[in-house]
Specification:
The complex is a heterodimer. Chain A is an all-alpha fold. Chain A has helices at residues 12-26, 29-66, 69-72, 86-117, 120-134, 138-165, 180-205, 208-216, 221-249, 252-257, 275-282, 289-320, 325-330, and strands at 76-77, 82-83. Helix content of chain A is 75%, strand content 1%. In chain B, a hairpin with a 2-residue loop joins strand 13 (338-339) and strand 14. Classes of the chains: A mainly alpha, B alpha/beta.
């Protein structure tokens, strides 16, 4: 160090040390460390900005051509160059909704069992298996959906649905096994591990006193679990948001089982398509520049859609926690 | 120390001298996935014969055309010929070289059918339009006398990913059905009026095998290698023809005269008696005037080789070879190639 006194008030060295001191401060380990970490954080931000800028640039010709009709149009016709994204928006929403509807009770139910009821050893073993499920590549889920789930749906589940619930438009049509319902079920299985493992961790982190207090007040075991669950709600909602993110963006498995049809149908047995699946399907062989641009525009819409869903889910967490920003932010 | 440095320098210089000419001769191409097996075989054989290395990326026809447009490759490969609009978008004039022919077969899943299914163009269009929905429909039954067709619903399966196979199939449907031409049209991806989409040949074939009453179109090579039952389709001359390499070449041969006028003319629905109707060509796309004379010459000699020695390798990989008439068309095109304004071949 230079001639600076050993003990000075904060800010004093800046005035005294002059140029050399400023450099030395710049290069001090603390400063370098701080700046390196800031660079890491900034790079994430830069990637997001670049993605948005590049997709907007690529999508511009299509957005300029169709404007708001791009979101509301139902025709996707590369030959006539008419592009409307509504069938894909619809398909993404419906498959994700089916997936959540199936995975939420199943996931939270098993998390409660693993955290509250099962012996610790069993809970650990089962949650290890559940986490293993999360690491299976999505194409394997797709193949399973196509070769195992589809025949099962075709020969047993769908004929039953048509016979007993066929009065609802949701369950009309031929039982082909491939379609929106199949995609929703495959997605549900893919997102259950996320919900189970995060919810279990959240439940385990809840203070024991909560349950003990409930029991002391005369609550039954089920009621005591209800109290813990209520307190764990923000964390569980966070798990659901992560799971939903995977469902919205899943490409390969969905493409293999959804039937890839750009018609909007009220029936869950009919084929459909999602935003991610149409990009995967058509991008490599899109020959006209407007077609390419329309596909990039779909990517932009998917991005915006994910942001909106995330934002909406955050609001939901805020609302559920009555404004406890600490947990809401964590979600 | 000095000696090591000297040796390193010599080695580097030697490597540069050796690599120099090879790098200048190495060609790059990108595009279609359908002809990739035969192309990689060709590039391999050609390298062994001449030492010229050709680096090919099978990234899809559309992406290949983009690369040609950007000038990042020496040649592109596409399963669909460029439309007039697309030709205008190119910075300079490009020419098409058909390399091999392919056919699209209709695979089906009908248990208990002992004779091959026979389909008329009307039946194929009706099935994919979503108008013919049952297998015992009279449109299908009329073409299959003496066969009892089951009363099960038809599931029409198409490719969900954009592909040259789809282009061949929809080009054929547009030629045989005015309704199809007006409502759907032909392209690597279209707006399908009905049915379900599966990814890739293997996806379509898998779904056909899975679904009783399913029908789907796949490349002939894929159908042959997997021994799928395929339909005989009635051609323009009124014959029901099985898709084979011979009936594919016959279809291309029958179109030689129109190809001589414009090599982009569809070869589907050919008039010959023994021609299978759902056929198409796959193309190399090359700038007529290339900048680098050395690379241009290397490319022209490769195409010349592919038209002769290369054709002998086609059948083993289940591609149909080009008939003599089409090879003549390609040779005429080869003579129009220039580098910096100078003719490449005498």
């Amino acid at each position: 160090m230079g001639v600076a006194p050993a003990v000075t008030a904060p800010g004093a060295p800046r005035r005294l040390a002059g140029r050399g001191g400023a450099w030395r401060r710049w290069l001090s380990p603390d400063e370098v460390h701080r700046r390196a970490l800031a660079l890491c954080a900034l790079s994430v931000f830069a990637v997001v900005v670049l993605i948005v800028a590049e997709t907007t640039r690529g999508a511009w010709p299509a957005l300029h051509e169709y404007g708001g009709r791009f979101l509301t149009g139902t025709a996707w016709d590369p030959v006539a160059e008419k592009f409307g994204a509504l069938p894909y928006l619809y398909g993404t929403l419906v498959t994700s909704a089916i997936a959540l509807a199936l995975a939420l009770p199943l996931g939270v139910g098993s998390a409660v069992y693993l955290a509250e009821i099962a012996p610790r050893a069993v809970g650990d073993a089962v949650s290890f298996l559940v986490e293993l499920l999360a690491s299976i590549p999505s194409i394997v889920y797709g193949i399973w959906g196509m070769f195992v789930l589809a025949p099962f749906l075709r020969s047993i589940v769908e004929p039953w649905l048509i016979a007993h619930l066929g009065f609802l438009p949701l369950f009309r049509g031929y039982p082909f096994g491939i379609g929106v319902l199949n995609a929703g079920i495959v997605l549900a299985i893919m997102i259950v591990p996320t919900i189970v493992s995060i919810s279990r961790e959240v439940l385990l982190a809840m203070p024991r006193t909560l349950r003990e207090a409930a029991l002391a007040l005369g609550a039954t075991r089920a009621e005591a679990i209800g109290v813990t669950l209520d307190a764990a709600r923000p964390g569980i909602l966070g798990a659901v948001i992560l799971a939903l993110g995977r469902a919205l963006g899943e490409t390969m498995a969905v493409t293999m089982v959804i039937g890839n049809s750009n018609h909007i149908s009220a029936s869950l047995l009919a084929p459909g398509a999602t935003m991610a699946s149409v990009i995967a399907n058509e991008f490599t062989e899109a020959t006209s520049s407007l077609h390419l641009s329309a596909l990039v525009a779909i990517a932009l819409v998917l991005f915006a859609f994910t942001v909106v869903v995330n934002w909406f889910a955050r609001l939901l967490v805020l609302w559920a926690t009555g404004g406890r920003r600490d947990v809401a932010g964590a979600a | 120390m000095n000696r090591i440095a000297q040796r390193l320098l010599t080695a580097t210089a030697l490597a540069l001298v050796l690599a120099g000419p090879a790098a200048a001769q190495g060609l790059t191409g990108a595009g279609a996935t359908f002809p990739y097996p035969i192309y990689s075989k060709w590039f391999d054989a050609y390298k062994q014969k001449t030492g010229v290395e050709i680096n090919y990326q099978s990234i899809g026809s559309g992406a290949g055309i983009q690369q040609v447009k950007a000038g990042t490759v020496d040649f592109g490969a596409s399963d669909a010929a460029l439309s007039n609009d697309r030709l205008k978008e190119m910075p300079r004039k490009v020419v098409h070289f058909p390399t091999v022919a392919g056919a699209v077969a209709l695979a089906y899943n009908l248990a208990g059918l002992s004779t091959p299914l026979q389909l008329t163009p009307e039946a194929v269009a009706g099935i994919y339009m979503g108008k013919t929905t049952m297998w015992n429909d009279k449109v299908i039954a009329a073409a299959n006398p003496g066969v009892t067709l089951p009363g099960v619903p038809i599931l029409a399966i198409h490719r969900s990913d954009g592909s040259g196979t789809t282009n061949i199939f929809t080009t054929y449907l547009s030629l045989v059905s005015t309704e199809w031409k007006e409502l759907v049209g032909a392209n690597t991806a279209v707006s399908w009026p009905s049915g379900v989409g599966a990814k890739g040949n293997e996806g379509v074939a898998g779904m056909v095998r899975q679904t009783p009453g399913g029908i789907g179109y796949v490349e002939l090579a894929y159908a042959k290698q997997n021994a799928l039952p395929v339909a005989r389709v009635r051609n323009k001359a009124g014959e029901f023809i099985e898709p084979t390499l011979a009936s594919t070449s016959a279809a291309v041969g029958a179109s030689a005269a129109s190809l001589a006028k414009d090599v982009r003319t569809p070869v589907a629905n050919a008039a010959a008696k023994d021609a299978y109707p759902i056929t198409g060509l796959t193309f190399l796309i090359v700038y007529q005037d290339m900048k680098d004379a050395g690379r241009a010459k290397a490319l022209a000699s490769f195409i010349e080789w592919a038209m002769h020695d290369g054709q002998e390798m086609a059948a083993a990989l289940d591609y149909a070879r080009l008939p003599e008439g089409v090879i003549k068309v390609n040779e005429a095109t080869l003579h129009t190639l220039t580098a910096g304004g100078k003719k490449l071949l005498p």
